[in-house]
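pls design
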């Protein structure tokens, strides 16, 4: 049994050594050119940046829709004492003028 396993192991080793040069190619093989890959991905990156910039400019130039102010629900702003920075919330802004401009 041991002879059979040894012979089978040697035959497998010979087949893998002979066949590995013909069919096994990894990323580190001699045919793989890293400089060309780097140039390719650099061009893809620059093209992606250009496309994203154009789409952002287009989306920002369209403007946005103004929605009406929500109804004043009294339970949303219950305050039992003032904040240290004043009566309004930190990111709240009370309208100083009533001419309709934001």
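designed seq:
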């Amino acid at each position: 049994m041991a002879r059979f396993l040894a012979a089978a192991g040697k035959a497998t080793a010979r087949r893998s050594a002979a066949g590995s040069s013909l069919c096994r190619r990894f990323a580190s093989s001699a045919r793989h050119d890293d400089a060309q890959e780097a140039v390719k991905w650099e061009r893809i990156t620059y093209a992606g940046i250009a496309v994203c910039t154009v789409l952002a400019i287009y989306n920002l130039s369209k403007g946005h829709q103004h929605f009406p102010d929500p109804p004043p629900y009294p339970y949303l702003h219950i305050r039992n004492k003032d904040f240290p920075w004043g009566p309004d919330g930190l990111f709240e802004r009370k309208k100083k003028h009533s001419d309709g401009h934001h």
